[in-house]
Design brief:
Oligomer: single chain
Radius of gyration: 19 Å
Order of helices and strands: HHHEHHEEEEEEEEE
Distance between the termini: 16 Å
Helix content: 10-25%
CATH architecture of the largest domain: Ribbon
Shape: globular
CATH class of the largest domain: Mainly Beta
Strand content: 25-35%
Length: 205
């Protein structure tokens, strides 16, 4: 999203004003403004555009349709989207995109490079703005940088954590002080694979 905070201040609106109008928390609006959440439900996007008195396309940093006058008042142009497979439990030894792993598809703007997505269960990443029910989009890659949020496969189960390497061990660090980091070596897991890097978030808030 682009210029949400700037536009809100131009209109003299507070975080609370926008949150109330859109039907979300002030924290969610703040995360929209900071870029922590760069993808949102279509109804939230429409409501946000209305309160900011702009078009949904301009909020996404896209130009409005060059010929809007040809559309009826109740019809809006739709941005290009692509379907990204939503993966469920990933079985060890099977390809990521095996049919039994795909639970459905989520849709994302086509300029974001994502290969699959996961629905978050649990609260271990809440301090990164990622909550239960959110959809995290992943770009498939075999390595990630220190501290990046990554989808990792550990003995057939996919998890989302910050990734760190310590010699022959790897650390998966949560974003919630109620949980401890998990450390893995060849001695305590049969399979460990980096699936990819988190690149976008679709929140249910």
């Amino acid at each position: 999203m682009q210029n949400i905070q700037e536009r809100r201040k131009e209109l003299g609106l507070t975080l609370a004003d926008v949150a109330k109008a859109v039907g979300v928390s002030k924290g969610t609006v703040s995360r929209w403004e900071s870029g922590q959440i760069d993808n949102m439900r279509r109804d939230r996007l429409t409501a946000l555009a209305k309160v900011l008195q702009v078009s949904p396309l301009s909020l996404m940093g896209m130009e409005d349709d060059p010929s809007p006058e040809v559309l009826p008042d109740n019809v809006q142009p739709v941005r290009h989207q692509k379907g990204v497979p939503l993966l469920g439990r990933i079985a060890a030894g099977t390809p990521i995109y095996a049919e039994q792993n795909i639970e459905g598809y989520e849709y994302l703007q086509s300029n974001v490079q994502a290969d699959f997505c996961l629905e978050i269960r649990g609260d271990s990443m809440i301090n990164a703005g990622i909550h239960t029910g959110d959809i995290v989009f992943i770009r498939q890659q075999p390595e990630v940088s220190e501290g990046e949020i990554a989808a990792v496969l550990v003995d057939g189960e996919a998890t989302l954590k910050r990734f760190y390497r310590h010699g022959n061990a790897v650390e998966l660090r949560p974003e919630n002080s109620q949980y401890k980091s998990m450390f893995f070596t060849e001695d305590n897991c049969m399979q460990f694979q980096i699936l990819g890097k988190a690149v976008a978030l679709q929140t249910l808030l």
